[in-house]
């Protein structure tokens, strides 16, 4: 099992925010970095955890520094893990040519295209490898009480990880929330580009494995989902929240299970995320600590 190397640590709201790196076998033996916030209550035993997935161009630092999550996580006694958004330094031709594909834009899929398959496996990295490495290192995090949330590309990732776990019967995550997620990537320009690039089967493969709007149609167990998006979001044409809510309602999920809220006048930025971050932390806390 890969060993963690601590890169930094800062006291924060009575707890600690620590950055680590390790050699990721899933990502082709590249260095993988992440931040983890541990509340002070973790000194007395394992605590529930939120897995936060960042958006395009982000690293493990953006939401940790600007998301506004830790005050409420500290009060609720919940850890937060902030992974990176892609492998770094794979040396693949074209990896750094576009801001919405390649470095900083792993899209939380496991690549099947030969050009990308060795390194770009962010789904498995986040869902399996990272929790295994953290548990092996002895950090006081209880992955049996885990939820997932994310922003934009990361909102897409959070929904896909959550719904896939339900479809597989694993129930890895107890709840899911998202800020401005790409809800139907197989019909969004960003998603089409990602699926055609990373997947040998292109959009058709993406539709089957990584489109939340289509995945929720297949779920037959109860769900706990909260989505916020801004009505002034400059990328709203990429998000398609209406398609997701229509699919959820057709699948029989009412507002107690799938809540989608359009927040008047808010955009796509971390100002928007930080405004509603406390509500999202408390949404998950109610479920994680039930």
TrEMBL record:
Pfam families on file: Esterase
Catalytic activity: S-formylglutathione + H2O = formate + glutathione + H(+)
Catalytic residues of the enzyme: 152, 233, 268
GO CC term (a single one): cytosol
Compartments it resides in: Cytoplasm
InterPro entries the record matches: AB_hydrolase_fold (IPR029058), Esterase-like (IPR000801), S-formylglutathione_hydrol (IPR014186)
Cytoplasm keyword on record: yes
Keywords: Cytoplasm, Hydrolase, Serine esterase
E.C. numbers: 3.1.2.12
Gene Ontology biological process terms, A to Z: formaldehyde catabolic process
Chief localisation class: cytoplasm
GO molecular function (one): carboxylic ester hydrolase activity
Family to which the UniProt record says this protein belongs: Belongs to the esterase D family.
Job description of the protein: Serine hydrolase involved in the detoxification of formaldehyde.
Name of the molecule in the record: S-formylglutathione hydrolase
Organism (species): Pisolithus microcarpus 441
